[in-house]
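User: hey, got a sec? need IS5 family transposase folded
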Amino acid sequence: MRGSDERTGALFSYVDVESRIRSDHPLRRIREITNAALAALDEDFGALYARRFGRPSIPPERLLRAMLLQVFYGIRSERQLMERIEFDLLFRWFVGLGVDEAVWDHSSFSTNRDRLLSGEIAAKFLRAILAQPSVKRLISSDHFSVDGTLIEAWASIKSFRRKDGSDDDRPSPPGRNAERDFHKEKRSNETHQSTTDPEARLYKKGDGQPARLCYIGHAMMENRNGLAVDGGVTPASGTAEREAALAMLDRRTRRRRITLGADKAYDVRQFVEDLRERSVTPHLAIDGHLSKTGKARATAMDRRTTRHPGYAISQRCRKRIEEVFGWIKGSARLAKVKLRGRAKVDAVFTLALAAYNLVRLPKLLEASA
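Assistant: Yep! Here you go:
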């Protein structure tokens, strides 16, 4: 029998959003972990907002859940995110909005988001997830890996101008950006600066690659299940990865010696000495490239480390950190960040690390049950 296409309206309709979400949906387990972490941040949220004056803001818990959805589904703008929350029952349920509740304006969402991220909430949220007992037993306390990746800044190469303002622009037609001829011009971060994002630096990570205005995102991963345990963003430089690795190690409390795996960019004698002073065994890939004279570069690693089977295991495990960066740049669409300023980029990148853990945790928890 053919069904009817006539619309049957009703004076009243009750939609139970909870019953519309299937019981085995991955976001159910993710929401449980997220809510537990948000409950642990209640005092931090209270410190960010005035208690007596002003109008009520967007609840920070709902704001952060909405930001997680934006990362999970790779939504490119706040305007599109608000549209999805307006019409998608799954999004409304995850954020905590009822069917009849109004969705926020995208500009209000952006303003409240910037306020929330200014309080290092992203880093505290990542730590709150990892501190949960069910998650903590999945994390290795002895073996870690570090790496860095370029995050392209939200700034055009044409905005890279001299700091003294001596650049001369060609005349341009009305309504267009000024012409900028920078070919064959020697430019460096010491003499030039982006007018759009002054904290972004011109950098390239390897020979034969174009230089871009960017930051460097850093991550520390535990080697048992490949979960991100720390991270952040720094200005791009040749020493930023090693300096960030030492900073992340200093933030960790430990009682015994640990191992740290990394690629050949970390194979520097001073860095190895710094690790040993911190009771960290370096499991670094050997940088043995040939010099112009045909001589192999002297590595900082020696046989007292490389002869152990654990070194080979760390070299296999450390490559999994590329999965973290691949997900952040691909699924979360952070290959080119759409915020300006290192503090905001750092917060968004750290939140993406937390989102990566949340995506992987339901299966890991189910397997360990």
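Quick note: Residues 31 and 94 are 7 Å apart (CA to CA). Let me know if you need anything else on IS5 family transposase.
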